[in-house]
Amino acid sequence: KNARKPDLIVLHLGANDYNVGGSNKTNFVSKGKELINYFRDNYGKDVPIIWAYDPNEGFPEKVKEIMNSFGGEAKGYYTLSLGWSERGAGGHPSANEHAKQAITLANFVKQKNLLK
Question: What is the pLDDT of residues 71-116, one digit of tens each?
């Protein structure tokens, strides 16, 4: 166990990294569950986890499957679709898009009352 315990864990995985190293829907789910279990083993079961994702890339349905397999929101496992409307260099979010996504995340945290 780690000496420091986070108040909240936010993942933003599955856009670019879903299609490298032979990733597919099957191992994405198994490796995603391993990652969630790693956080639980190191930080305990009471730290909320948000998995933010891009609804247009990767395996958004598999992100939801992973988080729901642990009990979903009722057990502290949240998903958040960030969406994109402004692309910057190389198809990545622009600086303005990052700012909008940060506001979306902050509003979600407040709405769900995840920081006590």
Answer: 999 999 999 999 777 777 777 788 898 899 999 999 999 999 999 8
pTM score of the predicted model: 0.89
Extended beta strands in 66-114, E state: 77-81
Contact indicator for 80, 104 with CB cutoff of 8 Å: yes
76 DSSP 8-state letter: T
99: which 2 tokens? Answer: 């700012």
Place of tokens 């600086």: 95
57: which residues sit within 8 A by CB, 6+ positions away?
14, 15, 16, 18
* The pair of three-digit structure tokens given for residue 87, joined into one six-digit string: 């692309």
- By the 8 A CB rule, do 59 and 19 touch? no
Q: What is the pLDDT of residue 89?
A: 73
